[in-house]
Fold:
Amino acid sequence: MAEKSLQGGDKLTAKLAELSQHIAKASTVRVGYLEGSTEADGTPVAAIALWQEFGTINNREGTVIPPRPSFRTMIAAHSGEWGDILGRVLVHNDYDAENALEQMGLYIGGELQQSIIETNEPALSDITLMLRKMRSEDQSLEVTGATVGEAARRVVAGESVGGVSRKPLVDTGTMLKSVSYQVDNGAPTEVDPNRNLT
Structure:
């Protein structure tokens, strides 16, 4: 039986060492609502996203937010693709992990924004629509239990809720605009919701 041998073992070892140096430059990317993102009133966007994702009940104010899972929907639909995409992005970036993870953060952030845009159910209640109308008429209006009660009174009285957006999750636009990504411990980078998602 003839012996077979591999040539260039030193070159292969050197190339693998070089690749491992590039890959070791970065190891994680976080995507979502990172520290520091807040609504105008100081409420963390991550808290609002959590309430929207899983739903919540405020017994004191008598309000209910039904679950509108944009984050879980995005993960279920796309997470199985991310490993293959990262592999291709690493090759395209000559195995520079930091650049590859930056691109993955932007890509996954775009998928999250698209999921927010595509979330239309369950429909908003007439009280929520009335609150939107009331805020459009008075930008300084704070939503409190009394405000919710006033919105409910107006709905019962038959006041129209026309002229306001019926789209869930994008009332102020802050949640959509606050989608960010962060590679390792670098500075968070916001994902531009107005870019072309195709």
User: Anything to note?
Assistant: The mean pLDDT is 84. Residues 70-92 form the longest helix (23 residues).
